[in-house]
Specification:
Layout (H helix, E strand, L loop, with lengths): L3 E6 L2 E6 L2 E6 L2 H17 L20
Antiparallel strand pairs: 1-2, 2-3
Length: 64
């Protein structure tokens, strides 16, 4: 589980994940919405299997 936080910097808000700044937005409401959406997406996504390497290979070309 990632730890999200919102930090105010002047008139803007910075969304942070585990102490790393990710995005700057103009309102706290937008920042809260982004955090909620990101947390929901992470809850839905299955965790990658540590045994299965990530695939970055291209799809084979289609031959007519």
């Amino acid at each position: 589980m990632k730890r999200y936080s919102i930090v105010r910097a002047g008139k803007e808000y910075i969304v942070q994940v585990d102490e790393k700044s990710i995005m700057k937005v103009s309102s706290r409401r937008k920042a809260m919405k982004l955090v909620n959406v990101a947390a929901g997406l992470l809850d839905q996504a299955p965790a990658p299997s540590p045994d299965e390497p990530a695939s970055i290979a291209r799809d084979p070309p289609e031959v007519p």
